Amino acid sequence: MPAYAASILVIDDEPDLRTLYELTLLREGYRVETAGSVQEARQQLRVQQFDVVISDMRLPDGYGMEVLLYLREAQRRERCVVMTAYGSAENAVEALRAGAFDYLTKPVDLKQFRTVVASAVQGTGAVPAPGQPAANAGARLQEAEARVSADVDSPSASPVMRLLVGDSAAMRNVKQRIAKVARSMAPVLVRGESGTGKELVARALHDNSQRADGPMIAVNCSAIPENLLEAEFFGARKGSYTGASADREGFFQAAQGGTLFLDEIGDLPLAMQSKLLRAIQERSVRPLGPRRRKPWTCASSAPRTRISPPRCRQAIFARICTTA
Predict the structure, then answer these.
(1) For residue 271, pLDDT beyond 80
(2) Exposed, middle or buried: residue 74 (CB in 10 Å: 0-12, 13-18, 19+)?
(3) Which residues contact 244 (CB under 8 A, 6 or more apart)?
(4) 213-234 pLDDT per residue, tens
(5) Are 207 and 290 within one domain?
(6) 2 falls within a domain
């Protein structure tokens, strides 16, 4: 707990991540304000001073670098921590050279997040005003460059990512997209020929997300008997069908707080695809038996659906193609 209630501005365009960072800092005893764009951040900075500014590098109306440069040009006292996507080595180094206090690589590890923020609040190694370089600035930059290189080549945040072997431009692009998409709660379409590692990509998405501590449920849709599809996906209550001797949860409930990977969705009957589409759209399912639908998501815990490949009806294909 900090000795005084330091004030922090968090800038991120992802509402769920912004809320996560805000709650994490509030629990540490800080006063927190949030912004979702460069413009909102400038408005906050015009009317208030902060101890620390934490900004995502990419924002809808610009870059976190603009906020950093604004602070430096105005000779503001706020220390700035930037958050960069996995593999964004150039962005991290550029920000540090421009005067950022430190950087964090997304997906952000909350323990490291708290440590960096505490260090920034205390002023340890803070970047001085323009024209007054710190004695240890060169050492900090060399250390940061080494950390960035390590993040790109051997990410410690994701053991699963190391299983994606290769250092070509194409493989780096795949890893960067995984890290970027993992931040979102949107459904993701994973495409590829048999044996190319679609499930491995899904596991990497899960492992790099804020739901990494939750379950990862992989389902082979083509292996489920047609007469058991609804019970397997949505759950069933005791006595709802012959042989149902007890309540059972479906895949959506089992994946609560984690990731649901649906493989070979195109092999499902069209009628079942329609029911699956409704479950994804409404984020609720109705187990066999009761008439009321049961939510499978909430503000703090929600499964994400990974679906592959796109051999399915147009409506559900369009719905799961939020990210492809």
Answers:
(1) yes
(2) exposed
(3) 231, 236, 237, 238, 288, 289
(4) 788 888 888 899 998 898 888 8
(5) yes
(6) no
